[in-house]
From TrEMBL:
<dbReference type="InterPro" id="IPR000086">
    <property type="entry name" value="NUDIX_hydrolase_dom"/>
</dbReference>
<feature type="domain" description="Nudix hydrolase">
    <location>
        <begin position="5"/>
        <end position="144"/>
    </location>
</feature>
<dbReference type="InterPro" id="IPR015797">
    <property type="entry name" value="NUDIX_hydrolase-like_dom_sf"/>
</dbReference>
<protein>
    <submittedName>
        <fullName>NUDIX domain-containing protein</fullName>
    </submittedName>
</protein>
<dbReference type="GO" id="GO:0016787">
    <property type="term" value="F:hydrolase activity"/>
</dbReference>
<dbReference type="InterPro" id="IPR020084">
    <property type="entry name" value="NUDIX_hydrolase_CS"/>
</dbReference>
<dbReference type="Pfam" id="PF00293">
    <property type="entry name" value="NUDIX"/>
</dbReference>
<keyword id="KW-0378">Hydrolase</keyword>
Amino acid sequence: MIDVTYVQKACAYITRGSGELLVFEGPGHDGLQIPKGTLEAGESPAEALFREVLEESGLGTLNGATKLTTDVWTRRESPPKRYVRHFFHATVHEPRDSWTHTVTDGGEEHGAEFEFRWIQPSTNREFALDLDDYVHLLPTGSATGEGDIASISD
């Protein structure tokens, strides 16, 4: 029997203005990502959301964070690791079109520099780690294109 580890993650779809979506690229990441991270002991998904967004992007104020969905995503490793991913949507008033932020958490990414920018969300655009799976759940006007991605494993 294979032991499977479950890791709880909070994932943030952050939009501004006309629905532009915040994404980043950084070292050790293969493609576009959204702010996300592991829940700490005793922390709720919503608490982790705010902490991770601050640590990874430097954004300290989110407006109207709402939970979109939760899934279980499997990363094939030995042993396999499953991620219980809690996806949220929040808005922010951010005038910068792009910026670099140095990660402030105490984990593996501490000190890494992430390059943030805003994009028009599209259900045809693929993100690393299938983080684009729920772009179609963003409020009307936030996502364009057709075709949802059904796969939840890499």
